[in-house]
Design a protein that fits this description.
heterodimer, A: 311 residues, 14 helices, 79% helix, B: alpha/beta, five-stranded antiparallel sheet
């Protein structure tokens, strides 16, 4: 009865009771490694925060003679989130790319396979333990994000949205790491494949965004306004929006701009050249949907691979 | 300073393992098979690793699976433990098919591979707790279970130590404890004594006998024929993927050596003894052996039963022949192994 109640009222009950998650969390938090990773992470975030603070305040002072608190706050907040994103992109694959291949390397995979542990529990346990540590890192950096509040210019929705984007990125990259880890017996190979794929998604999408924005600008600038059709704008808008929503940094920046200009959390108003506008979902929502869907598909595929019995 | 004597099997006090094995074999129902394979085949490309293997392991047996390297032992074990799909044939554990009911098979078996899977960052009790949880043992039962398992394998004093600090023998015992977490009816052990020092080997053998007494069926592969000979009730010899011979170990010895060999040591009256022996029925031959410690020795090939052996001894003693030793020579497993295998490696 108590167990049923626990399951009902505590959504994390199943994950906490997952033996793999518990084992991984115990192992991860034991010894100096967890402390060293967190210290290194905070030092990097702290160093850049200080540097950006100094640069932003001196820049603001030199332009107007007085500090524009809102602008400095926004720059500081965006910079800390960008640094966190950069670190999440680098740390998450390192935690999950050894998930299955590490079991092979430690010769414990066969032991696990002959137990009653479902393959899905193995995958969820590995992902959950990695994400739990990422959450800890993000929470640990909150004091540095909070410096931005001293200057103003940052609202609470921005904090929530940035956290969601960071977590969705971590879930996607974590799933990708586990997937590659299940396809190879070498952790090094799994790491390389995960980083290459993550970089390809980030860089290729960024490149395509730049190209599409360039095309859009030249289309709207050089073509006579009467010739610019709404259909043409749609054709340019959809791929541009899609690729923005494939790139976490672009999503962060575009969402922030719409938040500042339109004060709307969930939707944006896109204005066409002909003066009409259309209501669209905010980029962070589309980004979250795309990344979580991709993560779900990758995890499903990973479980499927693990269920295979050696022929 | 005290001299440290390195442990060897000779200076370790061993229990009567063979006697225990004999007692166990008397209780086994040869018809009640807990592991059975029918025409089991495994192919890796062109290599035919397991060929029409018909394995029969009775419930409660300690079954030694013996064969040279590359004979197909590990492939067979991986199929039995649901880690590998056979290319043909069927395998059953406790009535469950390894192909169609892998989850039931996993519930019935405890598997120990020929290597020790180490989680370096775990304590001994955490290691057992983790695997107990993987076997769906409720958390409320695990504490007591872990204590019982550690006591069984004599590791209670290392409960809070890190796993990587244990000696190889201790790790092997811990691994054995892990296989018992869900109280399986069959233990499948791949080379359980491989790489262990003599003391650890004896300890593992003792443990296996103890587990067999608890009603577990033990199916293990080994290269060390002395281990197999010491504790097994049954043996299967595999070579180049084919089962060369299997059955109760006593039965196999009798089949391969139908004559009893009796070695008699005497102080004197050799010719008189030879004449008396040859007059008895069922005596096939008497030959002289080289003297040992100044005592003369005779080797008697005898095809009769135990009553005949008793008559033979009585005949000699009534004639006043000074006998100092009278013993039946059992053929060791190495002889059996060499007789039935050809040294083929697949």
């Amino acid at each position: 009865m108590a167990t049923r109640l626990n399951r009902l009222y505590n959504p994390l009950y199943i994950l906490i009771r997952n033996p793999v998650a518990l084992k991984e969390l115990r192992g991860r938090m034991r010894g100096p490694r967890a402390f060293m990773v967190m210290t290194g992470y905070l030092l990097i975030v702290g160093f850049f925060t200080t540097f950006i603070y100094l640069a932003a305040t001196s820049d603001s002072l030199s332009n107007t003679g007085e500090i524009d608190g809102g602008e400095v706050g926004r720059i500081l907040f965006s910079s800390v989130v960008a640094i966190e994103l950069f670190l999440v992109v680098f740390i998450t694959p390192a935690f999950t790319a050894s998930a299955i291949s590490g079991e092979h390397e430690h010769q414990t995979y066969d032991l696990l396979r002959t137990t009653l542990l479902p393959e899905s529990s193995l995958v969820w346990g590995k992902l959950f333990s990695a994400l739990a540590y990422i959450i800890l890192l993000l929470l640990a950096a909150i004091p540095m994000q909070s410096i931005a509040f001293l200057f103003g210019g940052v609202d609470l929705p921005e904090i929530y949205i940035s956290f969601v984007i960071l977590m969705c990125t971590a879930v996607f990259l974590g799933s990708l790491g586990i997937y590659f880890s299940s396809t190879t017996r070498s952790t090094l190979r799994a790491n390389i494949l995960t980083y290459i794929t993550a970089m390809a998604v980030a860089l290729i999408s960024a490149l395509i965004i730049v190209v599409l924005v360039g095309i859009n600008n030249s289309y709207t600038a050089t073509t006579n306004t009467s010739v610019v059709t709404r259909a043409g704008e749609w054709i340019l808008l959809i791929p541009r929006g899609l690729f923005i929503c494939l790139n976490p940094l672009a999503t962060l920046l575009v969402t922030r701009d719409f938040l500042i200009n339109q004060q709307s959390v969930f939707t944006i108003e896109y204005a066409f050249q002909d003066g009409t506008s259309v209501t669209l979902l905010s980029p962070w929502l589309v980004f979250s949907f795309i990344y979580l869907t991709m993560a779900g598909i990758i995890l499903w595929r990973t479980v499927h691979i693990l269920k295979r019995i050696q022929e | 300073m005290t001299d440290v004597i390195p442990p060897s099997e000779e200076n370790i006090e061993q229990p009567e393992l063979a006697a225990d094995a004999i007692k166990l074999s008397a209780q086994i129902d040869e018809e009640d098979l807990i592991i059975e394979t029918r025409g089991l085949n495994k192919r890796y490309g062109k290599l035919h690793a397991v060929k029409d293997l018909n394995l029969q392991v009775p419930r409660g047996a300690i079954y030694g699976f013996v064969g040279p390297n590359g004979a197909g032992k590990t492939s067979t074990m991986r199929i039995l433990t649901t880690l590998m799909r056979p290319s043909g044939g069927e395998a059953f554990i406790d009535g469950y098919s390894v192909i169609h009911n892998p989850r039931d098979v996993r519930r019935s078996i405890g598997y120990m591979p020929d290597f020790f899977g180490v989680y370096e960052d775990m304590k001994v009790w955490e290691y057992l707790d983790f695997f107990a949880a993987c076997y769906e043992i409720p958390e409320s039962q695990r504490h007591g279970l872990i204590n019982d398992l550690l006591e069984l394998v004599d590791l209670s004093h290392r409960r809070d130590d890190m796993v990587d600090k244990l000696s190889r023998g201790m790790k092997q015992r811990l691994c054995l404890a892990r296989t018992l977490a869900h109280d399986p009816s069959v233990l499948i052990l791949d080379e359980p004594a491989s790489g262990l020092d003599p003391r650890a080997r004896v300890e593992i053998r003792e443990l296996l006998i103890e587990l067999a007494k608890m009603g577990k069926t033990i199916f293990f592969s080994s290269h060390i024929l002395a281990d197999v000979s010491e504790i097994c009730t049954h043996i299967g010899i595999i070579e180049a993927g084919e089962m060369v011979m299997q059955g109760p170990i006593k039965e196999l010895r009798r089949q391969l050596n139908p004559h009893k060999i009796i070695v008699i040591s005497l102080l004197d009256k050799v010719e008189e003894a030879k004449t008396a022996i040859l007059q008895l029925p069922d005596v096939e031959a008497v030959t002289d052996l080289a003297p040992e410690d100044g005592k003369k020795r005779l080797r008697v090939e005898f095809k009769g039963e135990d009553a005949g052996v008793s008559q033979l001894l009585a005949a000699l003693t009534t004639k006043g022949i000074p006998i100092v030793n009278f013993a039946e020579e059992t053929s060791d497993l190495e002889q059996v192994f060499m007789k039935v295998t050809k040294g083929i490696v697949s």
